Amino acid sequence: MRWSLTSFISVSSLLLLSGCLDVPHPFRDPGREARTLAGNPPPSRLDVPVPDEKALGAGGSALWASDIVEALLQQSVPAIKQPVRPGDWWLKLHTERRGDLIVPLYTVMTPKGAVRATQEGPGILVAAWNALNADGLREASAYGAGQVVNVLNGIQAEQMEEDPHSLKHRGARIWFRGVTGAPGDGNTSLAQAFVVSFHEMKDTIQTSQQDSDFAVTGVVKLKAGPAGSRNNPQQNIEINWRVTDKADKEVGIATQLHDIPAHSLDGMWGDVAIAASQEAAGAVEEMITRYTIRDVKPLPDAKGVPASGAVKAGATGGRG
Questions:
Q1: Which PROSITE patterns does its entry note (predicted)?
Q2: What's the number of domains the chain is made of?
């Protein structure tokens, strides 16, 4: 029994993407030209000094700084709880009282001590803030870290706008390393269909590593599946499309899973290879887009207009 194109699409639309969502890289090196234009590009760390939050006390203030650092590290931001060091960007933790509410504020500061942007967390009743426990601080910090990442991504997007060689201005060059492990003509059919699927996309496929931005490898695994109806044996097929950057760091993996009649793909794959590769190509494109944040808009200036230059000391982004 041949796997039909229709049945393949309906069951393989459950595409499992691991490691490809919310991958911020706010402190990535934007390139020599962008560094020159930026003047003060973010360094390789973000200082987080302990705030003087009287309601929380010394212990609570230190815990807030520790929690926000931990939450930022989980989102790939190299934050360090320490006093501000000369030349470093840093994060100011503070609060603002609004009626019966305390609003946590997260301000990204430039090395010159100017406010770049401020984000705020949800308001908390004054009594609740004064009695905030470790769980409450951790929850507030998790939300605040997400807001800070938005600011840092916007800063990087500014730098990418200024760099004519960045992936905001061109497609990524993908070194496709081929497919292995498939039965029948799967290795060849999947590879050819994957390359064809990129013809209409922004990114381009190449067969060499030279000047590539990313690499993609396809691996097929087969194992015995359930017995199937009427004693027809089944096999479980798993196709993994692994994407890595030029430093061989994993960007993500798109996984396609399905049970098939045993040995039904031992010959020609035909439309199955086309459907699988088209779906995989779209997933790879999405992973690269998220990883590079090339679709993120530059951080607005104080007037809400995207900055024409890179990081501008003193500009303040919108809140919330």
A1: PROKAR_LIPOPROTEIN
A2: 2
C-alpha 302: how far from chain center: 27
314 located within any domain: no
- Asked whether the whole model's pTM tops 0.70, one would answer no
Place of tokens 């000369």: 86
Tokens of 69: 């650092």
Q: Give the model confidence (pLDDT) of 198-231 as tens digits.
A: 988 889 999 999 999 999 999 999 998 777 666 7
Domain that holds residue 214: 5-20+169-292
Pair 228, 270 in one domain: yes
Each residue of 163-206: pLDDT tens digit? 788 888 889 999 999 999 999 999 999 999 999 999 888 899 99
Q: What angle do CA 267, 272, 273 make, to 5 degrees?
A: 85
Residues 119 and 320 sit within 8 Å (Cβ to Cβ): yes
CATH of the domain at 120: 3.40.50
Do 39 and 135 belong together in one domain? yes
For 264, residues 6+ apart whose C-beta sits below 8 A from its C-beta are 1, 2, 3, 235
**Residue 317: inside a domain:** no
Q: How far apart are CA 264 and CA 3, in angstroms?
A: 7
